[in-house]
Amino acid sequence: MSALMRHLLLIGCFVTRLSYSQTACEVCGAGKTIENPNNQFIVEGQPQTTCFVLNFAGAGGLIPAESCPFLPPVVEQQCGCIPTGAPIEPPAPVGPVAPASPVAPVSPLAPVAPPILV
Predict the structure, then answer these.
(1) What is the model's pTM?
(2) Which long-range CB contacts under 8 A does 50-55 form with residues at least 24 apart?
(3) Cβ contact 33:54 at 8 Å
(4) pLDDT tens digits for 26-60?
C-alpha cells in the first residue's frame, strides 16, 4: 500500500459515515489554500497526517460537511493558509559576487624529458 493511501486512510478520523460528501471542503476557508503542505496536521486523539493529505481529502469530498467549518482556524495554525493564487515570495537577492583572482595559465601538457637508457 502506498504512503499516500495510508495517509488517506488516516483521514478516516474526519470521515464519520460510510458515504462520501459530494461537496469539497476548503480546509483553509473560502479562497485560501495550504501554505506549508509538508507540515504535520495533528488533532489530539487522532492519527496525524500531512497538511497536503488533509487538503487533498478536503478537495476530494472526504471530509464531512459538518466538520468543515471547524477546520480553518486549526489548519491556519498548523499548516498556514494563503490566498489561492497568491504569488510565492521570491528568495532574497544575493549580493554581487567578487571576481575570482587571476590564476597563472597552466600548460595542458608538461614537457617530458626523454628516458635515460643505460
Answers:
(1) 0.56
(2) 50/7, 51/75, 51/78, 51/79, 53/4, 53/7, 53/8, 53/10, 53/11, 54/11, 54/27, 54/79, 55/27, 55/28, 55/79
(3) no
(4) 999 999 999 999 999 998 877 889 999 999 999 99
Do residues 27 and 73 make contact, with C-beta atoms less than 8 angstroms apart? no
Asked if residues 11 and 59 have their Cβ atoms less than 8 Å apart, the reply is no
CA angle at 27 for the pair 50 and 17, rounded to the nearest 5°: 85
**83-112 pLDDT per residue, tens:** 988 765 565 677 777 777 776 666 666 666
Output phi, psi for 10, to 5 deg.
-65, -30
